[in-house]
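Researcher: Next entry: alcohol dehydrogenase ([Candida] subhashii).
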Amino acid sequence: MSIPKTQKAVIFETNGGPLLYKDIPVPKPAPHELLINVKYSGVCHTDLHAWKGDWPVPTKLPLVGGHEGAGVVVAMGENVKGWKIGDYAGVKWLNGSCLNCQYCNHTDEPNCDDAVLSGYTHDGSFQQYATADAVQAARIPAGTDLAGAAPILCAGVTVYKAIKTSGCKAGDWIGISGAAGGLGSLAVQYAKVMGMRVVGLDVGAEKGEFAKSMGAEAYVDVKAEKDVVAAVKKITDGGLHAIINVSVSPAAMQQSVELVRKKGVVVLVGLPQDASINVPVFDSVFRTIEVRASYVGNRADTFEAMDMFCRGLVKCPIKIVGLSELPGVYKLMEEGKILGRYVLDTSK
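Model: Predicted structure:
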């Protein structure tokens, strides 16, 4: 395949600085890397944090953001095995890890101290050509809708892993806080496919209709409902077995502790800046509740989440816009006006 020397990308030179849509050089893959012609890239809330630089972990600068890139392998380093030119591949949040530490050896590569992160410590998918470690790059079956598959690479894998972390089983009630967002809309679907009964929690009637269209059995408008805890307990006959917090509302995270029944599990996923929750010791012990955290999935989680998408068991509610329109997407994200996921077409 013919590979150009330059490409279009969105890059910023300082955190919070101008998002520059410009020509930059096409990167050369290292011996262990693939070069992927990114066709589509999802936009994640993490990308917004990376641009702002408001997380305690610093980004590289200058930086090309993005970590939900779906495309085609066009080149590879001399040490790469098991891939061929023309394969569909995905750029994930976890771009690479050491593969030798205690975490990597126990399939917890995302927790590796030397993890390489796409769109954070490594230039990501908001460009037409991106590099990815051949071991960690996602395998996407030939013929897959790449626009729809892009959000699975982070949003899908992340919520699928969180649901597994909750320990919920078929028939259990599971709550999705932030049910109409990019992660939440996928979490609703994965939970339903796994046999769970889903209560969506979000703000506004429009988001409620959307969450129900994704498969939520019930919906609670946390702004309109006078007593959210009572409403959830009434729906579930006593409280949720687990709740997945994919919203970035500290207040919602705090309230989620009250929404679970005895032996219930609270799973933290969203990462609002400087947030914390208070878990009363007596109540937690007396009700035997657990608070767990869930990060991104490993390679097996990625395979399983992508397989469900490819078999049509889940779908990505997306809106496709051009790569150059990324600043507008960030604005909508900050205003909380996004249903589902925005996906960037790198050709525009």
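Model: Note for the record: The first strand starts at residue 6 and ends at 12.
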